[in-house]
Amino acid sequence: MKILVVGGGTGGTIVANNMARRLHHEMKAGKARITMLSASERHMYQPGLLYVAVGRMAPDELYRDQKGLLEPSIEFHVDPVETFDFKENKVITKSGRTHQYDILIISTGSRMMPESIPGLAESAETFYTEESAIKMFKRLREFQGGKVVITVGVPHKCPMAPLEITFMLHDYFKERGLLDKVQIHYTYPIGRVHSLENVAKWAKPEFDRLGITYETLFNMKEVDATNSILKSEEGTEVKYDLLIGIPPHKGMEVIEKNSIGQSGWIPTNRNTLNMDGEFKNVYVLGDTTNIPISKAGSTAHYEAEVVAENVASIVKMGVPVREYDGKVFCFIEAGKDKATYAMFTYNNPPDPKEPTQAVHWFKMAYNKLYWSSVRGIL
Amino acid sequence: MSEQSKVVDARGTFCPGPLMELIAQMKQSQIGDLIEVWSTDAGSAADIPEWINKVGHEYISSIEVEGVWRVLVRKKK
């Protein structure tokens, strides 16, 4: 059985390692083979960029060598896929190589699209790449006061990040003794300060207590860089001195080029994680799916565990054994030294508790434990 | 309705939620497209028309069948 994993991010790495452990004997006996194709020889811990942007992590802490994260039995190539041929059970890579498969797992992730909002890329600081997070921190260090506007595109990666960066900026300016010279203003696309109702119920009084102002039902339309004005689809405007943008994102270009999914999101069954349609030997993970849940590493992690167990069961018994229940677990940093979390499934909404220092330190520990997590040890 | 609508199936999902899914779908739709949001969140029946009216799209209808709200809208701009 040839199992091919396309993508070496959180989902791809966890699914490959988990399968390799479950199929140890079959792989040793030559009955199963796992191959991963990735666009990069390095693996980035993306949530760490949030900390780089406020000077709390160094960029080199975010990377590991991808090959070193994988079980030695997994064949790894830095050679991204350019063509998917589902009828022939094969992919063709950038180097021109063809890889046949019996089971295909697509976990190619997403890409930031700040350029989809006129003026945003040129005007806003952001923290979704190493380069932009460093640039944002340098800008913060130089900032001496004024109106800081945090604005949120749709759809965006990691729905907790807009809240987290807002609370972290508050504490950053407080630490620098600048709070009396800084007004923090938060805009959000829907009619409350967070998409999760219970998170919004907690965050709104926190904003009020900290003096953070907000405007809801605000969807970025364009940025007038000359006059430092952010305009919304809803017809309102806000002036800024420092603009922090949470950019819209899309699935990867290869998905669009192969006409597999609109905007790069592949239509995926929310329980089996099979790609919709006739090719039942194709699974999709993480940001790559069109499932209407959080695009976050946690989502990819729980989905990867389900797919790995099912693929191993298919190899051993011919049938899958589990369904994905929509589980997501998200830490929420509520400043520089306290945090809470939201855990939910398709059937159970989250109920975040009061932020504590203990949860913050657990998140700080998880920033290191992530590497054990993707290896499949944790 | 004979005209084909795009369905945003946001049943049983909390984050980013039905309205955010609709906003995302609006961005990748053409002017004149019909979009139907399926939601198990009762708040969607109020949230979606509020946003639609504020932005200037067209709110067409909202019905509830066995706990699922189906909100139909049209992209106007």
Automatic annotation (TrEMBL), chain A:
Domain FAD/NAD(P)-binding: 1-291
Pfam families hit by this protein: Pyr_redox_2 (PF07992)
GO molecular function, one term: oxidoreductase activity
Highest taxon of source: Bacteria
SUPFAM superfamilies: FAD/NAD(P)-binding domain
PANTHER family xref list: FAD-DEPENDENT PYRIDINE NUCLEOTIDE-DISULPHIDE OXIDOREDUCTASE, PTHR43755
The name this protein goes by in its record: Pyridine nucleotide-disulfide oxidoreductase
Automatic annotation (TrEMBL), chain B:
Entry protein name: UPF0033 domain-containing protein
Matching Gene3D superfamilies: TusA-like domain (3.30.110.40)
Domain UPF0033: 8-32
PANTHER family attached to this UniProt entry: SULFUR CARRIER PROTEIN YEDF-RELATED (PTHR33279)
Cleaved signal peptide residues: none
Sequence similarity: Belongs to the sulfur carrier protein TusA family.
Upper classification of the organism: Bacteria, Pseudomonadati, Pseudomonadota, Betaproteobacteria, Nitrosomonadales
InterPro entries: TusA-like, TusA-like_sf
